[in-house]
């Protein structure tokens, strides 16, 4: 978008106090202009059509048409970049992932603050998210044609697949995981950037979309075939000899795709598989390169099917992979390299080579 003009924001929330608080915080940012306010879902759809804002902040528990319903209608009639700002408690997390499936880009928890300093800190995070969202292309929700993955160039087989994702990741993961079989012969480990507080809801939501078992990894868990593992809120996940290791994130993307994928390269060598899905920035690119250098299997989501092509582009540019796949091709690609009985987790670079 043209960065010379202000970012036009429509705020949707049925709480006058919350709307006034957000408006006051956003008024301190010269790059942002609040162009409208709506207190219910139907009014939000009307104003989205009338005002054509750059970004919409959307609460989910609304009178009349709820947040996911309003988002679905907006993405059909007046597509916009939608940032969910909602409470995590009660139905907030569940509705949040319904909203993302309908077309929202990101989730932010409403502030639970006890001081003016904490509120200002949350306001800075809100401003940063809106400014980042304003740079994301508005994505059509039209279904894409199914495409077959390219044939494998070697007889490689893997013992584990790791995936890094950010903006647009939850719906991409939903599509991917829903098309993998219950008897998948390897575990899958995932680093999905997400606001702290929403991880349990995401795991629960994804668990309803796939025959695989989706769970939160805990320190010391031994990975099992046919299970999908996410780290606990605010933690990075790495794998050592088939065991989950958790550590608190220290700055940067949370959780780190680079840390996760690099750990697979060290632990599994040529038996590691990795991929980078849609997302901002370059997290995951260096970890994917380490897997490739170790002889493992790698892929990145292609530009046409990505909500944001930042992370996949970075992986392709540094040589982390040569495979740019449409999202529809990723499940079959993973299955190709997992089509053998899973007997044990091989951990050494040379262990089991050529098996």
TrEMBL record:
Domain-level remarks: Contains a C-terminal catalytic domain, and an N-terminal region which modulates catalytic activity.
Q: Which keywords belong to this entry?
A: Chemotaxis, Cytoplasm, Hydrolase, Phosphoprotein
Q: What PANTHER family does this protein's entry cite? A: PROTEIN-GLUTAMATE METHYLESTERASE/PROTEIN-GLUTAMINE GLUTAMINASE (PTHR42872), PROTEIN-GLUTAMATE METHYLESTERASE_PROTEIN-GLUTAMINE GLUTAMINASE (PTHR42872:SF6)
Its domain of life reads: Bacteria
**SUPFAM superfamilies referenced in this protein's UniProt entry, alphabetically:** CheY-like, Methylesterase CheB, C-terminal domain
Q: What is the lineage of its organism?
A: Bacteria, Pseudomonadati, Myxococcota, Myxococcia, Myxococcales
What name does the UniProt record give this protein?
Protein-glutamate methylesterase/protein-glutamine glutaminase
Q: Name one Pfam family in it.
A: Response_reg
User: What are the coiled-coil residue ranges?
Assistant: none
Similarity section: Belongs to the CheB family.
> Source species, please?
Hyalangium rubrum
Report what the Swiss-Prot or TrEMBL entry states about this protein's PTMs.
Phosphorylated by CheA. Phosphorylation of the N-terminal regulatory domain activates the methylesterase activity.
Q: Where in or outside the cell?
A: Cytoplasm
The CheB-type methylesterase domain sits at 152-330
Q: What general EC class does the enzyme of this chain belong to? A: hydrolase
- Which residues are responsible for catalysis? 166, 193, 283
- Task of the protein: Involved in chemotaxis. Part of a chemotaxis signal transduction system that modulates chemotaxis in response to various stimuli. Catalyzes the demethylation of specific methylglutamate residues introduced into the chemoreceptors (methyl-accepting chemotaxis proteins or MCP) by CheR. Also mediates the irreversible deamidation of specific glutamine residues to glutamic acid.
Q: Which residues carry this modification: 4-aspartylphosphate?
A: 59
Question: What catalytic activity does the UniProt entry give for this protein?
Answer: L-glutaminyl-[protein] + H2O = L-glutamyl-[protein] + NH4(+); [protein]-L-glutamate 5-O-methyl ester + H2O = L-glutamyl-[protein] + methanol + H(+)
Q: What is its EC number?
A: 3.1.1.61, 3.5.1.44
């Amino acid at each position: 978008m043209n960065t010379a003009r202000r970012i036009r924001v429509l705020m949707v929330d049925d709480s006058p106090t919350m709307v006034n608080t957000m408006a006051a915080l956003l008024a301190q940012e010269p790059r942002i202009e609040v162009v409208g306010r709506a207190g219910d879902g139907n009014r939000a759809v009307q104003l989205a059509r009338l005002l054509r804002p750059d970004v919409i902040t959307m609460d989910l528990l609304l009178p009349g048409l709820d947040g996911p319903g309003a988002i679905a209608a907006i993405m059909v009639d007046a597509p916009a970049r939608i940032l969910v700002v909602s409470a995590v408690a009660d139905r907030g997390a569940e509705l949040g992932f319904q909203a993302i499936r309908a077309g929202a880009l990101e989730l932010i928890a409403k502030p639970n603050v006890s001081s003016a300093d904490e509120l200002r800190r949350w306001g800075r995070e809100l401003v940063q998210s809106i400014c980042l969202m304003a740079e994301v292309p508005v994505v059509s929700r039209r279904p894409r044609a199914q495409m077959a993955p390219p044939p494998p160039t070697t007889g490689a087989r893997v013992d584990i697949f790791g995936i890094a994702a950010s903006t647009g990741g939850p719906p991409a993961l939903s599509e991917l995981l829903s098309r993998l079989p219950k008897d998948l012969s390897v575990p899958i480990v995932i680093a999905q950037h997400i606001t702290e507080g929403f991880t349990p809801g995401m795991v629960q939501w994804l668990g309803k979309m796939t025959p695989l078992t989706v769970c939160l990894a805990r320190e010391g868990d031994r990975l099992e075939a046919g299970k999908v593992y996410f780290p606990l809120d605010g933690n990075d996940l790495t794998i050592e000899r088939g065991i989950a290791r958790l550590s608190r994130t220290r700055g940067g993307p949370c959780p780190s795709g680079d840390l996760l994928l690099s750990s697979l390269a060290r632990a599994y060598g040529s038996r590691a598989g990795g991929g980078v899905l849609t997302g901002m920035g370059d997290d995951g690119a260096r970890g994917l390169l380490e897997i490739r250098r170790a002889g493992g299997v790698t892929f990145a989501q292609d530009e046409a099917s990505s909500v944001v092509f930042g992370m996949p582009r970075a992986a392709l540019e540094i040589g982390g992979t040569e495979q740019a796949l449409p999202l529809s091709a990723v499940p079959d690609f993973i299955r190709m390299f997992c089509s053998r009985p899973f007997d044990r987790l091989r951990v050494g670079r040379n262990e089991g080579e050529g098996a």
